[in-house]
TrEMBL record:
Keywords: Cell membrane, Membrane, Transmembrane, Transmembrane helix. The keyword Transmembrane applies. Belongs to the UPF0719 family. Its main location: membrane. The keyword Nucleotide-binding does not apply. GO terms for cellular component: plasma membrane. The lineage of its organism: Bacteria, Bacillati, Actinomycetota, Actinomycetes, Actinomycetales. The chain crosses the membrane at residues 29-52, 64-85. This is Sodium:proline symporter. It is found in: Cell membrane. It is a multi-pass membrane protein. It comes from the Bacteria.
Amino acid sequence: MFSSTILADAVVHDVDTFGFGWASILSTILYAVLGFALLILFAVVTNLLFKLDIRKELVKDDNVGMGVAIAGLAIATAIIIAGTISS
């Protein structure tokens, strides 16, 4: 009897009860889009500043170091976004 009451209560709870309201979902989407925009901006600035063609470095020249640098940037951006969302 007790477990069925707990289960029924868990099923009835709305999404907002657990802190996943529309505001938090929209802010998460906004921060994700902002993160992608910053990643693209960094790629453009890197191309202009260092006179590099990132696509050529990654695809044609198989430059592993450039791939690791871009991956590190993506992880760093994800950490910043996650920290902003969780605060």
